[in-house]
Design a protein that fits this description.
409 residues; alpha/beta; Rossmann fold; nine-stranded mixed beta sheet; 13 helices; 42% helix; 12% strand; disordered C terminus
Length: 409
Amino acid sequence: MSVRTVAAADTSFLLREQGAGDGVPVLLLHGVPETSSCWKRLLPLLADGRRVLAPDLPGLGGSSYSGPYDVPSLVAQLAALVESEGGGPVDVVGHDWGGSLALGLAGARPDLVRRLAVANAPYRHVPLLRAAHIPFFALPLAPEALFRLGGRRVVRLMLGLGWRSQTPLDPDVQAEYEAAYTRPAAVRAMLGYYREAARPRLAAAVRRERPAGPPRVRAERMLVLWGARDPVLPISTGETVVRDLGPECVMVTVPGAGHFVVEEAPDVVADVLVDFLAEQAASTSAAPPEGPERHRVAAAEPIQADAGDLPSVAGVPVGGTPQEQAASAGGDAPTQAAATKARAKAAGSKAAAKKAAGAKAAGTKAAGTKAAGAKAAATKAANKPSARPSAGRGAAARTPPSDPTAGPR
């Protein structure tokens, strides 16, 4: 891996790079409070036949940039970097703020982005009640005072609140983050990101208007990767990202990982990204990798946990019962089992029909016998002399009144 400085537009980028080849280059964008060091373990795994570029974001880490910090301006800096490194298109992967800028780059410069993957990054909807640091960092003066007094402890707190994996953060990397986000220039730049993002929303709220949303994003393939235990941006936020990106977007959740999924589960994330970025789709008969859960989010419904409904990423099957998987591979066992079940069902139906026919015949015979007995009794009664005296000439014959409560027999 090489580390160098690249001047592009108004930014002097610190750029980590690894790999070579004719494959489509990959641009990796980190989040806050991180630097491009968060990608160290993934760089060699993704750099097979392609260049992988991991810059520090404008104004953060080792990159120098004095603003403005609104998303369109930051996206323009990244677009200039891509063009200076050979032009596009590139495949873009971003986490946290890097994910938001990746979405912005794909929306503003679709000519520079082929495939897009975002990890634990909001798009059009932000859960401010859970991500309380966002409105706080948009305040004047108070955040600067917090970083001035708390220093490294604030960075450790930010990392600790979002971390859920049992895998600890590398101590050297953590020390780098703490040093990077206690420099006044970096703190000013980071807070500028949040303030510029919050300002349009606050202005729209004052005017009682809906803020203008980011541009629609389209890419050849799109992936949303999410740490399932993120306490700041829950899975429901990831679902909204998928819905906003459209039905072709696939979501992968990583159980046990929190907000910093790239560093909490680097091997799992690397496997998912290698599949997603592969030029040729993996064989559909390959076994699904363990760990992540892959699914497609319905346009107006929450995630369905039924494995049988899960689609594939890069051709890797991710759902279905063992019988269904065997059937798709041409196995005979499921077919035989289904045929046996059908024959048993048919035999049962036949036996039930025979039993019903026998019951009907018995019922008919019994009814006939009962009717014959009733007829014989009626004939006998008719031939028996009446015990009642005659009513006499001219008198009306009296019939006992019928019981009005008696129903049909």
